[in-house]
Amino acid sequence: MRTKLIVANWKMNNTVPEGLKLLAALSREVRETKECEVVFCPPFTALFAMSEAIEETPFKMGAQNMHWEESGAYTGEISPLFLKDLNVQYVLLGHSERRQLFGETDIMVNKKLSQAIRQKLIPIVCVGETEKEHKEGTTFDVIDLQIKKALDGQQKTELAGIVWAYEPVWAIGTGKNATPEQAQEVIQAMRKSLAKITDVPTAESMRILYGGSVSDEKAKGFLKQPDIDGLLVGGASLIPQKFAAIIRATEAPQ
């Protein structure tokens, strides 16, 4: 059975004191996570302080991005070794904002994925269609191609631990989101694509999240779907009470 995964992507928000205050507030709201894993992806500047503070909590650390090389002349970039040095366990790769705003390509995502696997960081690979592609009805083809390009040349024996996140680009930060049924349809198709590239047991073991204007009110609807294994949360993860409600949405009814 796949363990639910709830990921907080703070994006370019929260100074170090603000981040620590938010973590402390959430720790008071959520003292244990029996039904899921909870991962925080703060800005790089907060990783050191957060990695120390998070040791007293049931939560885990993630990063918002990384470079595909271990070191070198890459001004402003972050090596995967830097992340490991701070006990980071997860890393987001290919987030739609990285693709849309900073020109990150499928080739770059592929190289980053290779390095994450090599360094034993757990990659959360983001895929999704634009509003234009959504309206044109090419969602499934677009996402299938993104998956194939991400996995091109990767060793099949190393793929089971990859986490995927379906985030329709038209839903990121817009207040719009796919319905739980729409997200389930796409994520089910993703699992079928993964089964063809790898095999059925590997595809069934992979966790696939939904991301895109996720709210505390709608979280349970997504988490009820059979193929949705968690949520990638943006704005709502900046508000402790709302993020706590999303975490609690993973709990089975009493």
CATH class: Alpha Beta
Q: In total, how many beta strands?
A: 8
Helix content: 40-55%
Question: Which CATH architecture would you pick?
Answer: Alpha-Beta Barrel
Strand-and-helix sequence, N→C?
Answer: EHEHEHEHHEHHEHHEHEH
Shape descriptor: globular
Number of domains: 1
CATH homologous superfamily identity: Aldolase class I
Protein model, in words:
By secondary structure, the protein is an alpha/beta fold. It has one domain: TIM Barrel, CATH 3.20.20. It contains eleven helices and eight strands. The chain has helices spanning 16-29, 47-53, 80-85, 96-102, 106-118, 131-136, 139-151, 180-197, 200-205, 219-223, 240-248, and strands at residues 4-9, 36-41, 60-63, 90-93, 122-127, 163-166, 207-211, 230-233. The chain has an eight-stranded parallel beta barrel, surrounded by five helices. Helix 3 links the parallel strand 3 and strand 4. Helix 1 packs across helix 11, helix 5 crosses helix 7 and helix 7 packs across helix 8.
Topology of helices and strands:
Blueprint: E1 4-9, H1 16-29, E2 36-41, H2 47-53, E3 60-63, H3 80-85, E4 90-93, H4 96-102, H5 106-118, E5 122-127, H6 131-136, H7 139-151, E6 163-166, H8 180-197, H9 200-205, E7 207-211, H10 219-223, E8 230-233, H11 240-248
Parallel strand pairs: 1-2, 1-8, 2-3, 3-4, 4-5, 5-6, 6-7, 7-8
Helix pairs in contact: 1-11, 5-7, 7-8
